[in-house]
From TrEMBL:
<dbReference type="InterPro" id="IPR010987">
    <property type="entry name" value="Glutathione-S-Trfase_C-like"/>
</dbReference>
<protein>
    <recommendedName>
        <fullName>GST N-terminal domain-containing protein</fullName>
    </recommendedName>
</protein>
<dbReference type="InterPro" id="IPR050983">
    <property type="entry name" value="GST_Omega/HSP26"/>
</dbReference>
<dbReference type="InterPro" id="IPR036249">
    <property type="entry name" value="Thioredoxin-like_sf"/>
</dbReference>
<feature type="signal peptide">
    <location>
        <begin position="1"/>
        <end position="20"/>
    </location>
</feature>
<dbReference type="InterPro" id="IPR036282">
    <property type="entry name" value="Glutathione-S-Trfase_C_sf"/>
</dbReference>
<dbReference type="InterPro" id="IPR004045">
    <property type="entry name" value="Glutathione_S-Trfase_N"/>
</dbReference>
<feature type="domain" description="GST C-terminal">
    <location>
        <begin position="107"/>
        <end position="254"/>
    </location>
</feature>
<feature type="domain" description="GST N-terminal">
    <location>
        <begin position="15"/>
        <end position="108"/>
    </location>
</feature>
<dbReference type="Pfam" id="PF13409">
    <property type="entry name" value="GST_N_2"/>
</dbReference>
<dbReference type="GO" id="GO:0005737">
    <property type="term" value="C:cytoplasm"/>
</dbReference>
<dbReference type="InterPro" id="IPR040079">
    <property type="entry name" value="Glutathione_S-Trfase"/>
</dbReference>
<keyword id="KW-0732">Signal</keyword>
Length: 256
């Protein structure tokens, strides 16, 4: 069984996943997406991170090889626990995704070069597509204009990477195959396409992509956010927007 704590997942007859509350955290959702894509049976265990239960801290300590772990107060999710599998509980969402891909490949075997390009894409996407600075900036300010220019440059960079290195016979990085490139980026792509236009309609990503002529990235994003594994593990768009509003209010309060 694999399990994931939701902060925790456990694979049942395969894994278990532990997570905190609902699948509201992007880092937790990408692990859930990877499990769904492989059709693996798993148990999701919700964890209250404000009052961490003993069974959760015990699993976390095993994952980081400390008992008790000196930073246990900051123990986080997701954690993937594979019961009886001889594998330590896994923390860090990308580590979990790469483990699942290595053990249960979601697509046909790829060369080392193609796998490296896929992982580089994940790194490039996360670095090049920031949208929170747009939301944090005052509307009409120079900071907002700078944040928009940064997002546009990031969009151009990701589109160029896809045009150069992705397969051209389908919408995803590996053509018709939904891979680690999509699993690791999907929750963040979904927030970009749902939250940004809801809070700042003048910065609608779809309109920006069309104006910039970035058809390859637009096709990729559209296919990713419509993938069943992505939509089925995501909270309602209204919840995503409300959570982002709350986060922004907290950020503004902390900055005062």
């Amino acid at each position: 069984m694999i399990g994931m704590l939701l902060a925790t997942f456990t694979l049942t007859a395969a894994p278990r996943l532990a997570a905190a509350g609902a699948l509201t955290r992007a880092a937790v959702r990408l692990s859930a997406i990877a499990l769904e894509e492989r059709g693996l049976p798993y148990e999701r265990c919700a964890v209250n991170l404000a009052e961490k239960p003993a069974n959760f801290t015990q699993v976390y300590s095993k994952a980081v090889a400390f008992s008790p772990h000196p930073t246990l107060s900051r123990a986080k999710v997701p954690i993937l626990e594979e019961l009886g599998g001889g594998v330590p509980p896994l923390v860090e969402s990308l580590v979990i995704c790469e483990y699942l891909e290595d053990r249960w490949p979601a697509s046909e075997a790829r060369s080392a070069q193609r796998r490296a390009a896929c992982r580089l894409f994940v790194d490039r996407y996360s670095a090049a597509m920031p949208y929170m600075p747009l939301l944090r900036a005052e509307e009409g300010s120079e900071a907002e204009a700078e944040a928009r220019r940064a997002l546009e440059e990031g969009m151009r960079a990701v589109d160029a990477f896809l045009c150069e290195y992705a397969d051209g016979d389908g919408p995803f990085f590996f053509g018709e195959s939904f891979s680690l490139a999509e699993e690791a980026c999907a929750p963040f792509a979904l927030r970009l396409m749902r939250v940004l236009p809801a809070l700042r309609p003048q910065h609608d990503p779809a309109s920006m992509l069309e104006a910039l002529g970035l058809a390859r990235l637009a096709t990729w994003l559209d296919a990713v956010v419509q993938r069943p594994s992505v939509t089925s593990t995501a909270p309602p768009a209204s919840d995503m927007v409300a959570a982002s509003k709350l986060l922004l209010e907290r950020m503004k309060g902390a900055a005062k």
